[in-house]
Amino acid sequence: MTSPPPQPAPGLPDALVRVAGAAVAVWGGVLLAFVGAFLTPFRIGTVLVPVAIVLAVAGNAVLIWFTYDVTGNRFLCLLPGLVWLALSFVLADRTTEGDLVLVQGNWVATVYLFAGSATIAVAAYRMILPRSSRRS
Fold first, then answer.
1. DSSP helix/strand/coil, 43
2. pTM for this predicted structure
3. What is the CA radius of gyration of the chain?
């Protein structure tokens, strides 16, 4: 006679999915910050192409939505946006060698920081404000 396989705890798989989803979202925030920052000087010929701005707005919105969908927590969903924000501000500062990723004279870099931060602020407002206090 064989015994049935042991059953996992009822909440364990759900908790693992939430933790794994949050980890994926944070990693997505890291990748989004680096890829977006390095795309700010992207040019076609002599014209700056604002691909990084589109990435900052759409990427942050998707990451925040994904995190909320996976974790179900209104406050955890802002984690990838905060990671993006912290890394973007770190990339806007000179290193000890003098290297700079987000150049101040580049209008795409300035709008990239502003648009990404505004997206996170709007998402934070929409997520943290209770649903009952919003007007339909």
1. strand
2. 0.82
3. 19
